[in-house]
Amino acid sequence: MSYQVKDGIIVVNPSGGGSGGNLFTEQEYGNFILKFEFQLTPGANNGLGIHAPLEGDAAYAGKELQILDNTAEKYAQLESYQYHGSVYGVIAAKRGHLKPVGQWNQQTVRVEGPKIKVELNGTVILDGDVAEASKNGTLDKKEHPGLQRQKGHIGFLGHGDVVRFKNIKIKELRSKN
Predict the structure, then answer these.
(1) Where are the beta strands (DSSP E) in 41-160?
(2) Using 50, 70 and 90 to split pLDDT, how confident is the model at 13?
(3) Alpha helix locations (H) across 57-166?
């Protein structure tokens, strides 16, 4: 596992060319608010898995929200649904609200049923409904069985780059029924 805690900060630091692996919560969550801070390194790519099982690719078996250095030249030609804050393959987030690489960003993710809202540094960059967004197929034209999941683990999904996380807070929301 390439996740380490140093001075209260979780650092994913893959070595030997690996992805860094995934770091999931022990508990499963349905409706919740997640607040955290993250710091990207140049060209960094990571993911935030939600409603994810412990096995399989969280982007499809659960849902993955992108954590990505949108300014990296190597990512200039990505699809809209691959940039930071997007629900991978399903809903594109607004761009232009990340702080410069190396600075700390604050992000809040609110999940209630199929609705996902992402606020980055005080700006809502995504406010969508995955059921509505995928009713005629997904943007990436792939199967996403995890879109049906109402509960699962939350996790950081290593993609081979150094990323730091701190001040992570999860608040469960009660169902409205």
Answers:
(1) 45-52, 63-68, 104-112, 115-120, 123-129, 153-158
(2) confident
(3) 58-61, 130-134
